[in-house]
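Worked example 3. Consider a protein that binds magnesium ion.
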Amino acid sequence: MQNSKLFAAIDIGTTKVFTVIGKKAGDGRVEILGHGLAPCSGVHKGVVEDVAATQSAVRSSVSMAERSSGATVDTAFVGISGTGISYEKRVDTIDWVGEHGVITARDVEQVPQSIVRNGVNGSHRGRKTIHAIPQSYSIDGKIGVHDPMGMHTRKIDVETHLVEGSEAEIGKLKKAVEGIGIKVESLVLEALASSESVLTEEDKVRGAAMIDIGGGTTDVMVFKDGAMNYSTVIPIGGFQFTNDICVVYNTPYEAAEAAKLAHASVRADSVRIHEQITLPITSGNTLTKVSLHELCQLTRERANELMRLIVLKLREGGVIDLKGYRVVLTGGASRLSGFMELFQLGTSANVRMGAPFGYLGVPMELQAPAYSTGAGMLIWAAHQEDDEPKPHAIGQSEERQSQHKKSTEKVRKGGILSLFRR
Ligand SMILES: Nc1ncnc2c1ncn2[C@@H]1O[C@H](COP(=O)(O)OP(=O)(O)OP(=O)(O)O)[C@@H](O)[C@H]1O
Ligand SMILES: [Mg+2]
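Given these inputs, the predicted complex is written out as C-alpha cells:
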C-alpha cells in the first residue's frame, strides 16, 4: 500500500525545527513530498531545555510540512544530538543467525535492533540506548569481517558502537513531540542522519569524516571500511561566532547574527582594509562603527579554534592524519565564507561541502547544508522499513493531497522558509 511508505522526520536543532515528509520511490530513492521550518528558542547546544517553546516550534514546523505534503503526521523519526550522547564499544554473541544455513541480509539488518532490544539495559544509570551500530563481525575465529552476508555459520560475534543518551534529555525531547500528539517512532542520532545525506557508500569504505557544524554543536562522525568507527559532539557551533561579535562590539544578538551572515569571512584580507559597518550598542540608542577587517579577524580566530578542536577530537578517535580521508562539511554554519578553504589548508584533507543529494523532488531551498540532518533521517526511516514492515507512519488524505501542489508553491515563494534562505 502506497501510504505505508510515507515517513516523517523532525530535526529539532538549536536554531530551527525542520520537518520533512517523504516516501520511498519505486527506484529505492527517497522522494521528498513536503517540509516545514520554524525557528526554535527552546534548545540549547542541541538539547531541549524549554519544552513548551520547543513544542510550539515543532507544532508550526509539522503543520507547515503537513500543508505542503497533504499528509497528516501521526508518528515521526526524531533527531537527537548534544553532549549528553555517549558512545561505547561492545561485543555480543548472536546465535539466531543462519537459520537457512547462511547468514542472510535480513539477519544482518536485525542484529542492531536485537542488541538494542535485548542485550542492553543502561536505564539503571539514567542512560538509554539509542543505536547499536555494527563495526565488524567475527565468524568461526575469523575476525574483522565487514560483510558476513552469505557466510555459513549459526553463530557470530558482533562488535558494535553503542550510542546512548541521557534519559532525562530524551524525556524532554519526546515530550516536545508527543505533547502535540505525535508518536516518536524512533530516535535517530543526528550525525548518523547527516552522514546518510551527504556521504556516499564509497566515501564510507575509503574513509570519510562528516562534520556537521550547526547552531549549537559540531557533530563529527568518522567512517572507515564501510562502518562508522568514531563519533563525537563538540559544543560549539554558529552561536559562538555570533556571540563573539556581541561580546566584542557590545551589540545585541540579532544585529550580530545579521552582521555575521552579511559580512563575516575567515579571509580577513578579502575585505578592503578601511571598510566599516555600523552596529547598534546593547541597551542604548547609539551606534558603533566596526571595521570589517577586524570583524573578519575575529571570525578567523574562532574558525581556527573550531578547526583545532575538530582535529583534536579526530585524533582522540584514532584519526591521526586526515590526508587519507574525505572530509565533508555540512550544517548551516559550515557555510561561513572561507571556512572550507581554511580547513583544507589546515589539514591537507580532501574537503568538500555536503548538502542533501540523491533524493527525488528536493526543492531548491532544501539543497543546503542546514537540511542534511532532516533529509538524512528520511533515508534512515526508509532503511528501517526495509528491515521490518511497520504500521502506517502517516496517512495521506485525498483532499490534502490535492492541496499539495498549491501549498508547496506557497511555501517555496515565501513563508517561514524565506527567513532561512541563505
Ligand atoms: N552563510 C553563513 N555563514 C555563517 N554562518 C551561517 C551561514 N548560514 C547559516 N549560518 C549559521 O548556521 C547556524 C544554523 O545552522 P543549522 O541550521 O545547521 O543549526 P541547527 O541544526 O539549528 O543547530 P544544531 O544542529 O547545532 O542543533 C546558525 O548559527 C547560523 O548563523
Ligand atoms: Mg542541526
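Take a moment to read the result before moving on. Residues 292-316 form the longest helix (25 residues). The first strand starts at residue 6 and ends at 12.
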